[in-house]
């Protein structure tokens, strides 16, 4: 991979007791691009995500995030809270983690808690309704509204998120992550449980996030129709190791990748081989 890097993962390792979930993994992600991490079940993808987003402290290696202004942040030294707040990395989870009892709009407002707390001077200015807080609150509502529009949920802004169809919840989760205006958006299986129409809509949404907003995306996904259609670069893992990387076409034609998938799930192997052609 050439050019700038927003994310550089160097010899990342993660051990759980005797299990080596990730072994000396190195890869980079370019800014304003979609980088996908794929591999059969148990390959170590989610563990890599959990290391990047501070849910796990890696056993070894470095994870560097470079911001537009040149700041370099060592993610392996920060916890999840600091990675979200200081490094400006947002993530979604395999299992949806919206606040089900809150409305769609409220979910997107909660996401902007850090910005609002700063503007409130950590409560006092907010309590007395100071102009600086009111401006920040207005902006937060505008951003939330913009995202509800982008994910086609504006007419359901006041409905409880828990009542939404599964595909709508997935899109709302991405909107919530985007309301933090992240430098890097990490998505853990965003197409899981979606039908073909919803997967196509998701692909369009992610392409618009890349192309219109210039947000860098790191994606774990099993749905090859999504991965092959939207990824600029794909890193393939198996048994904790990187076995291949390249463009969708390069990866699809790589015998090591086909062998890794053939060893597990036939349907998925066929999807890898047939996709992108
Ligand atoms: N917290 C943990 N404690 C112990 N072992 C773990 C833990 N998390 C992951 N593992 C192990 O690490 C390996 C990699 O798991 P991981 O969930 O990262 O794979 P994956 O590629 O994301 O799989 P999937 O596609 O099924 O989600 C597996 O053997 C798993 O059992």
TrEMBL record:
<dbReference type="InterPro" id="IPR003593">
    <property type="entry name" value="AAA+_ATPase"/>
</dbReference>
<dbReference type="GO" id="GO:0015808">
    <property type="term" value="P:L-alanine transport"/>
</dbReference>
<dbReference type="GO" id="GO:0005886">
    <property type="term" value="C:plasma membrane"/>
</dbReference>
<comment type="similarity">
    <text>Belongs to the ABC transporter superfamily.</text>
</comment>
<dbReference type="GO" id="GO:1903805">
    <property type="term" value="P:L-valine import across plasma membrane"/>
</dbReference>
<keyword id="KW-0547">Nucleotide-binding</keyword>
<dbReference type="InterPro" id="IPR051120">
    <property type="entry name" value="ABC_AA/LPS_Transport"/>
</dbReference>
<protein>
    <submittedName>
        <fullName>ATP-binding cassette domain-containing protein</fullName>
    </submittedName>
</protein>
<dbReference type="GO" id="GO:0016887">
    <property type="term" value="F:ATP hydrolysis activity"/>
</dbReference>
<dbReference type="Pfam" id="PF12399">
    <property type="entry name" value="BCA_ABC_TP_C"/>
</dbReference>
<dbReference type="InterPro" id="IPR027417">
    <property type="entry name" value="P-loop_NTPase"/>
</dbReference>
<dbReference type="GO" id="GO:0015192">
    <property type="term" value="F:L-phenylalanine transmembrane transporter activity"/>
</dbReference>
<dbReference type="GO" id="GO:0042941">
    <property type="term" value="P:D-alanine transmembrane transport"/>
</dbReference>
<dbReference type="GO" id="GO:1903806">
    <property type="term" value="P:L-isoleucine import across plasma membrane"/>
</dbReference>
<dbReference type="GO" id="GO:0005524">
    <property type="term" value="F:ATP binding"/>
</dbReference>
<dbReference type="GO" id="GO:0005304">
    <property type="term" value="F:L-valine transmembrane transporter activity"/>
</dbReference>
<dbReference type="InterPro" id="IPR017871">
    <property type="entry name" value="ABC_transporter-like_CS"/>
</dbReference>
<dbReference type="Pfam" id="PF00005">
    <property type="entry name" value="ABC_tran"/>
</dbReference>
<keyword id="KW-0813">Transport</keyword>
<comment type="function">
    <text>Involved in beta-(1--&gt;2)glucan export. Transmembrane domains (TMD) form a pore in the inner membrane and the ATP-binding domain (NBD) is responsible for energy generation.</text>
</comment>
<dbReference type="InterPro" id="IPR003439">
    <property type="entry name" value="ABC_transporter-like_ATP-bd"/>
</dbReference>
<dbReference type="GO" id="GO:0015188">
    <property type="term" value="F:L-isoleucine transmembrane transporter activity"/>
</dbReference>
<dbReference type="InterPro" id="IPR032823">
    <property type="entry name" value="BCA_ABC_TP_C"/>
</dbReference>
<keyword id="KW-0067">ATP-binding</keyword>
<feature type="domain" description="ABC transporter">
    <location>
        <begin position="7"/>
        <end position="264"/>
    </location>
</feature>
<keyword id="KW-0029">Amino-acid transport</keyword>
